[in-house]
Amino acid sequence: MIRRELVFEIGRTLIAIMLALLLGFIIILLVSEEPLEAFQHFVLGPLTTTRRIGNWIEATIPLVLTGLAVSIAFQAGQFNIGAEGQLFFGAVTATIVGISFPLPMYVHVLVALLGAMLGGALVGAISGLMKARWGASELVSSLMLNYVFYRFGLYLINHHFRDPNAGAMVSYRLPETVWLQWIWPPTRVHWGLWVAIVAIIFSYLFIYRTRWGYALRMTGLNKDFAAYAGISVTAVVIYSQVISGAIAGLAGAADVLGLYRRFQWQMLPGYGFDGIIIATLARNHPLGVPIAALFLAYIRSGASIMSRMTDVSSEMVAIIQGIMILLVTAQAFLSKWHHRAVVKEAKRHGLNA
Amino acid sequence: MGSMLRGIFSVGFGYSMLRVTTPILFAALGAVVSERAGVVNIGLEGIMLISGVSGVLFSAWTGSAWLGLLGALLMSILFALFMGYFHIKLGTDIILAGIALNVIASGGTVFVLYVASGDRGISSSLASKVMPTISLPVISKIPVLGPIVSGHNVLTYFALLAVIAVWYFMYKTPVGLRLRAVGESPDSAASVGISVERMRFLALGISGLLAGFGGAHLSMGYVSWFSRDMTAGRGFIGLAASALGGVHPIGTAIASLFFGFADALSNYMQSLSIPSEFVQMIPYLATLFGLGIFARQQMAKSQKGKKQAKEVA
């Protein structure tokens, strides 16, 4: 029974993705003078050279982390629109640890990652506390906190850690001790990959193999029932946002310590909303997150190659992403088909009995 | 400090405050209407972008700013209803539907602009039109007040009129009452024969229309071009202003002015020693505090209610 539900959910998600991709192809066909070229670059482009495969993996790392962050909050029945601000501030704290606290190799990276987690967790904790103590909507509070910590982070970087010799508004270069080292030359795939894998395993074990994770899922399924069963919903609301924020903070640190080696964001990078897309595609399951993140990074990387080689611009991929979310989350999508399957099954059982 | 005060009390500051408030106010009113009908419109940001690019394209094609505005508004309503269809008819979570719309709009506007004009990310080759500015008779002659209030883009005056129009519609018309009833308690509204679905479609349509005005102001008033992600979070700021203003048109207008004030102030701050980042943080912090205090009161009220119910029982 449960197995069939799972198969249905996976099938539905795949069909939604197919339809969205089909729409993408139709758009290419309509706007391009060289549609076949464009198709080919879009679908196969990311696999053609080592460097491109590298780009794909690099882009996947922060997406896995924000995807996990949002999934954990969603599983607790909480919204986390604040991953954006959490990862931004996490990147800022990692930068500060990198510049201000010289430490030996290895230790320095670990401390910087811990700093990023603390930074993100702090932002998440504010939403969690406001919701738990006063019932304030985490949707609005996390949205506000995005901007508060975006401005605060920019203030710290621009006024205290800005490199005056650099042309742009960027921080000082980070010392090598705090880098997430590149593991697959000539690509920039870095230690962040291991961080992401550890985060996946942690999230899975936490959600499905611990008492805290059980309480979290129960709260997400039915808050009132969870409360009757003796689960402290208040505690769940707080720790789900804190853990979610900590993992989001790592996403920011991964890009700063692994790719840029200095803080160079002047805008919110948008990974937080990407995390929501990924969590939606993965149905909030930590083991689904890497698949969804790889997929999203792949179609983006394909789109950007397509726009460099042909006359179709890469933004087309945004339309595909949006349609995917709409279809995957539409409860009515394919529900008739599902209903018919359930009825058929029931009848078969009825006849057998 | 002295120069800051002189900055705030200068005529130019008052003028720029009203100018930057305009798109925020439109978005915030859009948030109020949908929220009152029980639908959180996270898609305001995307609708404004769609409106912005549509205004530029339609006005360039037709050679008329007003036809450009009309096109922009129609597209905005269309996409608001598109999002509404997924939420109301197909059961997509409204927050996710809004995020999806924002994702589609953020890339889709750039994509459509490129297909239509060959411009990458900014509409530099299009001869798009700008909505006219209006010099108010009599008022423009008054010293100090005149230069602040007069000479704005016509959409700025529309925004002020929209505050009154939304207030009148929501609180003085039967349809407005039904719309609010649907937001308060959909089940009781349905039990007296109000169509919840129709009211929510209506609310989203109006919300889209208002956000559309805001987006059109950005590309046909605030500046004279469309550029990638030019809304820069104003749709979300509109949601914040609505929350800070107690989801009431008048309160929301005041909250929007507050956001506009901080935004204009941060421009003046850049020459001074106070970091502009802090000034720009103020409205968001104020919203956070407002949200916290408001939620706390609600909680205290409901707990008191429960206690009384127990005592009666």
Task: Describe the overall structure.
- The complex is a heterodimer of chains A (353) and B (313).
- With 353 residues, chain A is mainly alpha-helical.
- Chain A has a domain at 61-287.
- Chain A is built from 14 helices and no strands.
- In chain A, helix 4 (83-100) packs antiparallel against helix 5 and helix 7 (192-209) packs across helix 8 (211-221).
- Chain B has 313 residues and is an all-alpha fold.
- Chain B has one domain: Orthogonal Bundle (ABC transporter involved in vitamin B12 uptake, BtuC), CATH 1.10.3470.
- In chain B, 76% of the residues lie in helices and 1% in strands.
- Chain B has 13 helices and two strands; from the N terminus they run H-H-H-H-H-E-H-E-H-H-H-H-H-H-H.
- Chain B has helices spanning 2-8, 11-36, 44-62, 65-89, 94-117, 145-149, 154-172, 174-184, 186-191, 196-222, 234-244, 249-269, 276-312, and strands at residues 133-134, 152-153.
- A two-stranded antiparallel ribbon of chain B has the order 1-2.
- In chain B, helix 2 (11-36) packs antiparallel against helix 10, helix 4 (65-89) runs antiparallel to helix 5 and helix 8 packs across helix 10.
- The radius of gyration of chain B is 21 Å and the shape is globular.
- The N and C termini of chain B lie far apart (61 Å).
- The model of chain B has no long low-confidence stretch (mean pLDDT 86).
- The A-B interface holds A 31, 79, 81, 130, 133-137, 139-141, 143-145, 147-148, 151-152, 154-155, 158-159, 273, 276-277, 280, 313, 315-319, 321-323, 325-326, 329-333 and B 40, 86, 89-93, 95-97, 99-104, 106-108, 110-111, 114-115, 120, 233, 236-237, 239-240, 243, 275, 277-278, 280-281, 284-285, 287-288, 291-292, 294-296, 298-299.
